[in-house]
Design a protein that fits this description.
The protein has 472 residues and is mainly β. The chain is 6% helix and 44% strand. It folds into 3 domains: 35-135, Sandwich (Immunoglobulin-like); 142-239; 248-470, no CATH class.
Amino acid sequence: MKNTIQLVLISLMAILTVSCQDEELRVRYDESHPVFTKAIVAENQITYGDSISLEVEVADDKTPLSTLQIKVVVNDELVASEEIRTKGNSSAYTSRYSIPFQPRMPDNAEVEVHLSSINVEGYTTDTVLFNTIAKRVPIPDLWITFNTAMGIKLTLVDAQKHLYQATNLSLSNNITFRLATKVRSGNRIDWTGMAFGMPNGEFGQIYSTADPQFTLNDPTIYGFNEITVDLFNFTVTGKGKKLEPATELNIGTFASEKLTSIDNLNVAREKDWKTLETYMGQDVEITFTGFGNLATSLSPDFFEVTGTDKAKFLGETGVYKLLFLPEANYLYIEQPGARFPNALWLDGVGAGRPVAPFVKTTSWNWNSPEEYIFCRKIAEGIFQATFYANHIEAAVIDEPWRERFSMKFFHRRGWEGEEDARTYTISTPYLFAPTESDTGNFVGTPDFEGQGGVYRATINTNNKSITFVKVN
C-alpha cells in the first residue's frame, strides 16, 4: 500500500512539472484587444421568416485571434447563435441567420446582433449591431381548417394583441385542425400563405398536410362553442358549456360493445357489454333504470345505494367510462386514461367483483374490467378497492399459481409504474404478504386458504401501508 501511494504521488508531481513547463514555454503576448474593422448587416428591414446577412472582419495586430461569438436577439429572445474559431491576426466571416416568426415577436422590433471577438490571451472586444427592424406580416384573416369539414373564419377582435376569435360554434368536445392565413375552394389551405400547427409539439408554422395539427379535447364540456387564437403568444384555446353531472342512467342509452375476458385459468370468452362515457359528479344522486338490484349491481367503492333505484356517486367529479356486463348484472366504472397520483390500478389473480355469486375473474391481463381493478381515490395518495378474494394454496392443476391470490398496484391501466409491496406495511401479515420472487406482489399466505370473502383494501402511498378489512 505504501509503495502504491508513493507511485501515485510521483506520477502527480511529474504531471504538474510537465504542465508548468508547458506554461512557461508558451508564447506570451502583450495586452491587446481585437478590433472590428467591419461589422455590418445589409438589411435595414425584414419580415419575420426572412434572413439577415452578416459580414464581419476583425483584427488584432499584436495578439492572434481565438474565437468569434455571434448571438442574434429579438425582443430579448435568442433566435440564433454561433461560435467560430479564428486564427492568425485577422479574420473575415460572412453568414446568414433566419429570423423566425415565433411567440412574443412584436412589430417593428430591433434585431440585435451581439459580437464578441476573443484573442488567445483571453482579451475580448464586444459590439452590438442595431441595423435591422423586423416586422410582422399583416394577417387580416385567419381560418380554422379541418380535414373533412368546412373551415371556420376567425375574426380579428384585438389588433394590438393579435387576438382572433370565432363564436357561436357547434363543435364537438374533441377537435383536430390547422390554422391558415389563406384558403382555397372548400376552405382548403392555400400554402402560398402561412399555416400553423404543432411542429415538435409546440404552436408554430407548418408547411404541408404531413405536419402535426392542433388538438383541443375537453371531456368536461358538451362541445366547443368558442375558439380563441393568440398570434402574439402563440396559443389556441376553446370554451364550451360545462357538462352537468349525470342524474339518470338508463341501460337503454348505453352502446353495445364486445370485449374478450380471460379468466384466472387462462380461458378466453368474448362477452356482450353495454358501455357509456359520461360526466359524474361527486355526491350527486342518480336514478338507475334497467340495472336490477342496485345492491349487487354497483361497486361499493363508487356508489352508496340510497333507494331501490337510486344511489349516490362517491368518486371524484369527472368523466368516467361505465361498463355494464349483463350476464353478471354488474356495472364496472373506470377512467381508462387516469394515472397516478390521480389513480391506482390493481391486477393479478385470485380476485373478482365483490357481489354474489362470487367468482374469481382477474388474470394478469388488461382486456376487460373483469381482469383488473380500478381503485377509487379517497384522499391525496390514498386509494380504496373492494373485491372478492380467494386463495387455494395447493391447487391440483398444471399451474397452481392460477388459483392463488397474487396482485400488484400499477400507476396506469397497463404495465407501467409498479408499486413494490415489499416497501409497504400490511395490516394482516398472517393473510397477505409481499413476495421476493415476483418483485413485490402482495400474495395470500397459506393461512389465507379458507378465509376467502369480500375484502376492502386501503392503499396509502404516503406512509406506505395497506389495510385489509373483511366486509362479509
